[in-house]
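Subgroup meeting minutes
Present: P.N., E.W., G.H.
Scribe: E.W.

1. P.N. recapped why we're keeping a running log of single-chain structure predictions: easier to compare across weeks, and new members can see raw inputs and outputs side by side.
2. G.H. added today's entry (760 aa).
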Amino acid sequence: MQRHILWYQDPAKDWDEALPLGNGRLGAMIYGKPEHEIIQVNEDSIWSGYAMDRNNPDAKKNLPIIRSLIADGNLEEAQNATLHSLSGTPDNMRCYQTAGEIHITTGHSEVTNYKRQLNLSEATVTVSYDFEGTTFIREHLISTPADVFVMRFTSKGPRKLNLSILLSRPHFMDRLYCENGDSIVLTYRGGIPFCNRLTAASCDGKIKTIGAHLVVSEATTVTLFFDIRTAYRSENYTNDVKSHLMDVKSLQFDELKRSHKKDYQSFFKRNDLILTPSAEEEADVATLDTAKRLERMRMGHSDLKLLEDYFHFGRYLLISCSRPGTLPANLQGIWNNSMTPPWGGKFTININTEMNYWFAEKLNLPELHLPLFDLLKRMHQNGKVTAEKMYGCHGFVAHHNTDLWGDCAPQDYWLPGTYWVLGGAWLCLHIWEHYEYTKDINFLINMFPVLSDACLFLTEFLTEDENGKLILSPTASPENKYRHPNGRIGYLCAGCTMDHQIMRELFHHYIDAYHTLLDAKNSTENKEVPIALNEKLTKSVKDCLSRLPETRVHSNGTIKEWNEEYEELELGHRHISHLFGLFPGNQITPEQTPKLSEAAKKTLERRLEHGGGHTGWSRAWIINFWARLGNGDLAYQNVKALLTGSTLPNLFDNHPPFQIDGNFGSISGLCEMIFQYRNNTLFLLPAFPDEIKDVTFLGYKATYGLTADLSYTNGELKSVVLTSKEPRSILLNYRNKLVKINLTKGENDVDCNIFSLIME
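Output recorded in log:
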């Protein structure tokens, strides 16, 4: 069985079955229909409009009133006042939009030997079939080095290629025309203006244009080049796309494929996961395509190789939708076929955008993380305006959504989510994570003002409760609700557990970053570390940190979600926000906080008993939770539930509808099942299920300068190789047995027998 291949015996019936390609900026979904091919296309900067100032001018004066109403239990009044005075004006930021479609008509109605496949190791989509004694092959790739979408059509046999090609977009376009006898052009000046252009080249037949169609006839091969340019990146976008295609159309497909493959594999080959099924299982799936194998899993059968493919598909997606210089992965990565996608196809920053990048550093893909920081820099400037205009605070704030412009004003009129002020703070946790994995001091210098201003806002926005603790008000436990003791339904509250956990992580990160930069400044002979360090803010952050409420246990044995012991109204809610400290945070661990870990376990059990995990991304989060708690069997049970209950035929995560965060969050969870690293301890197979007896994992990045490979065979640890940039000592934990290892620079083979010598 060939590795890293998703293949199908039928064309995609709809968009959810199409196969994705991308290079971070351009995206395509290929249906693979023989008679009338549809290729839906995207460009990451095609959004519904330009930046807006949506900051509510009446927020500042109403904030004290709202706080007072919440404190007095007047929830209905507080929530009505919030809807009016703290909502954005207008309430919606910009949304991500489709660039349109490429339609290719062939006349091939009755075909045999049909196959379409996505090669995950090469990032190519191929469609092949036979028609009237001739084999027709379509090859597709989106090159990063050439920054272009390329399609090669070939025929092998007596029949020639006869294609009619058209560009389209649902309703919103200004012009559709042909040019130079070999190109089709589609333009739109609304929203963010853009130009789609397709050019035919390398054709041994005839090319002509008729009306808005490009026609290829009597050919055995033709290569189509497609690109999109927008006003987001250039005022001369129409000329830019034309000149770019003029430059690349002389390149041969095989040459483009070589450079594309080299670039893509520079990321893809950094890791590998190999799962070994039984001979019987392998034989059972040998002739089944990916869709049938997924269906087989839904009937209760095991398919470790499909799980392996799913893991690599997640890596493939991030490499394909988040590259340096592009926008970060949004709710749909880069793939969207709608003018009005679910939730605007935006960056939802109360978990979803963050989840997209949970595995980037663990799998040694730090470059793919960079677009998130570019967005955060744009947010920083807007968030300072929002903080001052709406709350009368210095610093930087963002709520639960943002768009390509970095809009930080509240999104929607939605009490469970709109008015939460920690979206920017959560994103800032990625700053220190990236630094810890890369030790890039210039990156930290560049991002430190963002981190500082996120803390500055909170030091001014925090308010004191009756116990002298510092809390946020108004706030909400993202997207959830409760019943107040007075019987009223509450969304807004004064303080909740997730808030305190995020702020605790943020403040620690700020303090660590501050001292790192201070040390760098003091150790640099010329004292030219170009950063201003605010000692006053640092003292304030330390004071606030000491006064945050602790994570507490509810009388029912679970982690408390709100500061008060409110009655939960949706026991199976998709958000499990009060376990942030378990994952992605590091405040709850079995070895250091056993009581909180037990409460976290009960929290998960309670959520799942009442239908929790019903969305793909929520199920992915649950995998990470169980992994952190060291329960491999329950982690794997949720992996299987994600694949069988929340996965589309093309392996996209199904919220429903499609959201890419579940793909990415589950990959993080699989990593956590095999490796975890904290407090200078590398945990080996900390949450690996009894059901899987064989696994090889290569290229896990534990921290800066330390990568790990592992092989587990017949239920026993057989090989561990640790590669270190410098000599160091670390602890290894395998099945709760601790061993101290002194590493030399380079590769270090660990004697796995050492664990058997340790008493239980």
